[in-house]
Amino acid sequence: MKCWKLLASMSVIFLGGVVGSSAAQAEKPTENYIQFSNTDLLEQVLAYKGRNYIDNKYATDVEKFEIEFAYAAKEESLNVDYEAELKKLEALLAELDSKLSNGELSKEEYDKETEKIDLQSTAFYEEKEQKLELLASEYEQGITSLDKTHVEESDFLNTYGLVHKNVLPTIEVIDLDWCQTYNNIAGFENFENVKKVTGEFGASPILDIRPFRGMTSLEYVRTAVSGVVNLDDFKNNTQLKVLELYTVGNSIGDEGWQAPYTQPLLTDISALSELSQLNRADISTQGILTPVTMKKDTTSYQLYDPIILSSQFEGAQLTYCTFDSNGTESTRSNEELVWSGLTGKEEFLAFEFDIQKGNFFYSGEGQIPLRWK
Question: Of 14, 5, 59, whose CA–CA distance to 33 is shortest?
Fold first, then answer.
């Protein structure tokens, strides 16, 4: 995973929180950005939408500026005012011509007055040209400012992985299948309109599923997770229709089921009872239960029904299977897990469970770590 350092001058939403300097906020009080530390995740989730947003925003801002600035109307107004002043001067000149013809003015007086009119005409023209130059300059400054913002936002995305916050509502699907790693999804709680999240079961699992709490529009989830003992973080996802979840035990070594797991087993899925629109669930879990301390001379151990089901499995039978240290199935039951013939050398007690009802599946491979005294 590649993390980018934030520029101190930026106003940034770092995944779920707001960060920024007062200088940046003074310059752009409404501009906030999102940063993902995982560049794969950024590329798949935000980059394409982000680039579209930046380009569309630029085009919209330019159009809005041109409408509000009204360059053509202002230019026409200046020219109309100038022509009106010229007509006044032309009227004065015509009056002088008449007075000269009638003998009311001498040639010397006439020349003196017409010179004044020429000076006024020149002054009006220069004033108009200055105002037109100022108008063009103000227009150019406005467009240049928008161009600069467009380039800056593009650079934020391309160089620093920063995306404008207004991109979030435009995203409805998050496909993690092409991400090499996506175990940190902090910030997903801001994606209120996302309906579908998918990820490869073989990729690194999500380590914290709390961001799902804020994704209230979710309808489909398929991903791998780890460190999860219950599904309470899905209680708010009342629109959820399909849940395909695999919890990773992170076994140590290459001994298959004989290798000890390091992550907890998902034992409580009762939160799914709150999801009335759920019509399919396929949940598979690996992991450990709470370690047990046993005396060296203990030869058996019994555990009663550690799995807590949801209402979707009402009426179905849950099956437990326990295994001895050689991997041979030793007992099968609907409620009790029993191990016998213990030698005091076992690292853990192994078991499996599964249950199915219609489109709902729940199975797991569990271990109970042992500490012998």
Answer: 14
Contact 285, 248 (CB under 8 A): no
Q: Which of 230, 155, 218 is nearest to 185 (CA)?
A: 218
**Beta-sheet pairing, 360-372 with 348-357:** antiparallel
CB atoms within 10 A of CB 17: 9
Q: Any bridge partners for residue 221, and if so which?
A: 197, 243
In angstroms, the CA 246 to CA 200 distance is 10
Do residues 351 and 302 make contact, with C-beta atoms less than 8 angstroms apart?
A: no
Report how far apart, in Å, the C-alpha atoms of 94 and of each of 63, 90, 115, 266 are: 46, 6, 14, 100
Residue 67 CA to residue 63 CA, distance in Å, equals 6
CA–CA distances in Å: residue 33 to residues 6, 30, 185, 233: 11, 10, 17, 26
- In this model, does residue 220 exceed pLDDT 70? yes
How many Cβ atoms sit within 10 Å of the Cβ of residue 334? 11
Residue 326: predicted pLDDT: 85
Q: Does the structure show a pLDDT above 60 at 312?
A: yes
CA distance from start to end of the chain: 42
CA distance 362 to 278: 14
> With 70 as the cut, is the pLDDT of residue 342 above it?
yes
Mean pLDDT, to the nearest integer, of 130-150? 95
This prediction's pTM: 0.68
**C-beta neighbour count of 299 within 10 angstroms:** 12
Using CA atoms, how far apart are residues 333 and 87, in angstroms rounded to an integer?
107
For 117-150, give one letter per residue: b (16+ CB within 10 A) or e.
eeeebeebeeebeebeeebeeebeebeeebeebb
